[in-house]
Amino acid sequence: MILKCLLLFVYCVICVHGYEDFGFEELKLRQEIADEFDVEILSAKNSSFDVLIVVRSQRGEYHRTRLEQFELNLRKQINDENVLIFAIVRIHEVEKLAHGSWTLFPFFQSGYEFVKSAKWVIVCEDSTELNLSKISAFLSSKNATSPEYFGHCIQDKQPVIIHHFGPHTTDFNTFNYPLFASGVIFSQTIIRYLYELDIDDIVPSKLPYTTIDVQHELALLIMEVSWVELSCEKMFCVGREEDCFSWVNKDMNNGCENSHLKLEDIHIAVKTYAGNYRARLPLVTNTWLNDARNITKFYTHSLEGTSQFNGELIFVDVGFNNTGGGHCKKLEFIMKHFSQNENAKWLVVADDDTFINTQMLVNILSCVDSEREGVVLGERYGFLEIEGSGYSYITGGGGIAMNRAAVEMFIQGNPYCGEETPDDMWLGMFSVTYGILILDFPNFHQSTVDSYHEDYIECFKAVSYH
């Protein structure tokens, strides 16, 4: 049944690489599959495929356009005689059947009966460029039954919080993990290892409940269960070079600069409290606030001590005491205040130690400004989604952007908000409930700049650091 459902969302890009013609019965069976599941077959000779491309696509008009460009680039290559047989799975469509598939593990488990048909699996983003001919030549010298996977290797220079200060079984600075934006190729044996894992043996003993960086966590999981390390291949590139068979289309990761959205269309709400006035707010006022002073307000629990800023900053008293954690009530107040007192199209909620590139913020929000549905965007985390349950949420430290439609949906829904409830997780959980679109933009960063590899930073021009 899983195979049947997944085939609904599989689009086959097929061409020939020296295979013999299949017999009449096999051709008839292929046509029956195409008729039943509406799978577009572009080959006249083959009913199977060698390589499954898993593109981590997302919903929404902007990402649909990116996906179309990605597929168009592949279509242009299908007449190349050196290319293997390829199929494509779009993760945002598979999510309907295998929840949490953006973390990959639920997809490999739920869809294994289909995935195992491929000798190789490529995981990439919708901004990845692939040269199918060069990939075919590379894979022709490899054995798909060997436990191997290949990619552009990156490492941590120090233990970082976004990787839970791990791995704990080897040196962090020698542990290689892939850059998904450059593509990564898994052999069928590695996929089988992931399929055979028991989720109860993984969470939380080997991986935490919260998904932060899928590319690191998947590499860590593979090493933990098989001791297979990522093979570093220089042909997986960040920038396009002559010998590359994959690279990153950075233009697609740097926003949409041709929109009519202006900085004045955004309201930035900074969460703060009296204990941080002296230590943190001067850093904000001396950096990014210079470009955004007229659109930014500071939401606090006490106006006492704010006179030190000589009226240069706008403070809003939320009307209740500060809490040690959670801040759900404060976020709820901010949304209601935005709805009643601000005319901006977008609400961006940030911490008082979040640093924002305001021009890049405008560029990114411009990409989805035409969305008619409610949108919440930023850096996506997942709670329990590696288990195929739970929900996605935009982590608060890097900043949370939501359009007015999303804000109004929350106000109308009026979900329960406890004093100690984590605000970003509350927002994510009820965004799923209300059908609000949650979009991942890696340009937002939950941690400091030194927590991210320079190649990753090069792929995604930063909106924020925390």
Q: How would you concisely characterize the structure shown here?
A:
The protein is an alpha/beta fold.
Describe this structure in words.
This protein has 466 residues and is an alpha/beta fold. Helix content is 32%, strand content 18%. It is built from 17 helices and 23 strands. It has helices at 2-7, 24-37, 61-75, 91-94, 105-110, 112-115, 132-139, 188-196, 199-202, 214-226, 277-285, 289-292, 328-341, 358-367, 404-413, 423-434, 454-459, and strands spanning 10-13, 51-55, 86-90, 120-124, 128-130, 149-151, 153-154, 177-178, 184-187, 210-211, 231-232, 246-248, 266-271, 296-300, 315-317, 346-351, 355-356, 375-378, 380-383, 391-394, 400-403, 437-440, 464-465. The strands form six sheets. It has a seven-stranded mixed β-sheet. Helix 13 crosses helix 15 (404-413). The longest helix is centred in the first third of the chain and has 15 residues, at 61-75. Mean pLDDT is 86; it is low at 1-45.
